[in-house]
Give the backbone structure.
Amino acid sequence: MARNRFWDVDRIGPVQIGTHHDRHGREAHAAACTAPGCDWSADYLSRAAAELAARTHRCNPR
């Protein structure tokens, strides 16, 4: 049975941001684009950095 690993999930345009624990047990923030054909995602240590990346992301689907 899988648990919900992300909380505090928000959406900025096509990018979703969620908070999770990384493999070292620290709180981290992931940003991932949900547009079809765009495979962009990244992890950040601060929520502000993830939100900035989401606001400045430009999709380049192939």
The first strand starts at residue 7 and ends at 12. Strands lie at 7-12, 15-21, 27-33, 41-44.
